[in-house]
Amino acid sequence: MVNRCAWATSAPDYIAYHDDEWGRPVHGDDHVYERITLEAFQSGLSWLTILRKRENFRRAFAEFSIPKVAAFDESDVERLMNDTGIVRNRAKVDAAIANARAAAELPGGLCELVWKFADWSAPAPAGLGDVPAQTAGSKALAKELKKHGFRFVGPTTAYALMQAIGLVNDHVIDCWVREEVSALRNEAAPC
């Protein structure tokens, strides 16, 4: 039996996400945009709901191509609001499109902006109780994203993004994935 972060053991989808994705460095503007979008859609819902709908989200949002989503118009919004395969929340749909437009305007790109907030010195959490919901870094990231016109990116959502894409390593100290994620973060290529 391997040790995992406690949150990851309740469903096979969580186990696969934890073991293969969560915390591993994500680079590339479209990939980072996908994660921002999914974290925003997750707000108020279970992450499991989003994981199970992720392929539907990818199809609905043009594989999270920033230029393609930035060009979405009212007919696309209507299409998305009628798509039962995704979470149909008008504010979140509007935010996803606005965020693509904001990302398209960033000098240097979204990946570069987000990775400026990587925390290389955060201590390894001993257990779930040691994992914060937000940090000074996530507050600063949320503020920076909002400054550029992003929506649905509060400090808690920003911290979930930081965890998901490797800006922090919140695998608990005895989790079998922690060392692997640490090594990948040290080897991570710039955006």
UniProtKB/TrEMBL annotation:
UniProt xrefs under InterPro entries: Adenine_glyco, DNA-3mA_glycosylase, DNA_glycosylase, Tag
UniProt cross-references to Pfam families, sorted A to Z: Adenine_glyco
Domain of life: Bacteria
Gene3D superfamilies found in the cross-reference section: Hypothetical protein, domain 2
Signal peptide coordinates: none
UniProt: Zn(2+) binding residues: C5, H18, H171, C175
Gene Ontology molecular function, alphabetical: DNA-3-methyladenine glycosylase activity; metal ion binding
UniProt keywords, alphabetically: Metal-binding, Zinc
GO biological process: base-excision repair
NCBIfam families noted in UniProt: tag (TIGR00624)
Protein name as catalogued: DNA-3-methyladenine glycosylase I
Organism expressing this protein natively: Planotetraspora mira
